[in-house]
Structure formats: structure tokens, C-alpha cells
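Class prep. Sample record?

___
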Amino acid sequence: MATRGAKVERTSVSEQPHELQYEAKKEGTTAKNVEAAKKATGSNKRATVEKKLEGKK
């Protein structure tokens, strides 16, 4: 039986606008800040990006 989405997709933030908007809304920031956090960390892992965004609050 197939599962919904690959595991990697649940643990990462892609460049897709809806993904950036979702993460921005979840963290109470903007999509631009999410993109900047991804660039600053050099990672697209959700936990790493969220940790970086926590420091910006």
C-alpha cells in the first residue's frame, strides 16, 4: 500500500511558494525570511530552518 508523500518531503522545506508560505505562517514570519534562513543555514531540513528562524524572533 502506498503512503502519502515521501518521508524526505515531511522533513524538508522546498523552494515551492506554498511550502515557503506554510513555513512562514507556522513560524509567524515572512516567506522571504524563510528563504533567508534556508540560505544562511545551507540546509533545507525543516528542523534546522525552524531553529534559525527562532533566533530571528
